[in-house]
Amino acid sequence: MTIEKGRQLISLSETLPEEKQVAFGVRPCDARGVKLMEALFSDNAPVDPYFTRRRANTALVGLACSSMGPTCFCTSMGSAPDDGSDMDVMLYPLGDEYLVEAVSAKGEALLEAYALRADVASPEALARRAEFVYEPGEAVRIPKPEAWRAHFDDAYWDQAFERCLSCRICAYVCPTCRCFDVRDEALPGTNGHECFERIRCWDSCAGEAYRRIAGGHNPRAAKGQRLRNRFLCKFDYFPRQYALQTAACTGCGRCIDACPVNIDIVEVMQHMVEVSR
After folding, report:
1. Residue 244: CB partners within 8 Å, gap ≥ 6?
2. Which residues contact 202 (CB under 8 A, 6 or more apart)?
3. What is the pLDDT of residues 242-269, one digit of tens each?
4. Which of 91, 124, 138, 276 could form a disulfide with 147 if both were Cys (CB 3.0 to 4.6 A apart)?
5. Beta-carbon count within 10 A of 186 CB
6. Are strands 180-187 and 97-102 parallel, antiparallel or unpaired?
7. From CA 275, how far away is CA 277, in angstroms rounded?
8. Global pTM?
9. Would you list the domain boundaries of the chain?
10. Does residue 8 register a pLDDT over 70?
11. Is 61 exposed, middle or buried (0-12, 13-18, 19+ CB in 10 A)?
């Protein structure tokens, strides 16, 4: 598309993802994260054409976890290490072999394309599936959405998160954090023309400048305010705004493992349960 701005002609083009792809070895917590992103970007207006098209062109081949890690709590969030419900194809490791299960029509088509057949209805297949077991983790109590709202103004937020470095690593390892910034990057031009590419960059509400506006005012200048938003976004705002009515947390525990100052999402949830009794 070409538009005229003053005496200049500006040419605009849009790039939509068209290629088909397979995400291989997806863990159940990551597939659940994709499902939550569908609720936000595809199932509710305004529909995001970039995410929606890429998701339609992507098949998820999952790999079950043989055990729960020390910081995992996916079973408390309604999933499990062997949960294949959000996959297209699910693989279960059984020694030196893998049991293959087609979960969706897209998964069945993928297996047929590679001359593979998944017959999960046979007694043999069901017996092999029963061989896959895992040790359940310790149950985590999940606060109700109204509990977070009731303690919005607590001094706890500033006290608990004073040590936060605002490094944003918790967002960058999270399968459900989806905030982004929009930037225009300069590219090499041709024939004396300037060329720019508009891109979306992952962002995080834990960052110092996340809510700073053009005049310089920052309504979430304190670290406690920013981390409070992160938790309320996952456990209050998301369940209320989107159709799944579930928290935007998969229980993967990666934010616990990655945080350099040992901020623990489970400890925060248990605090909210205790003060809400």
Report:
1. 35, 36, 39
2. 171, 172, 177, 179, 180
3. 866 789 999 999 999 999 999 999 999 9
4. 276
5. 9
6. unpaired
7. 6
8. 0.85
9. 17-131, 145-177+205-275
10. no
11. buried
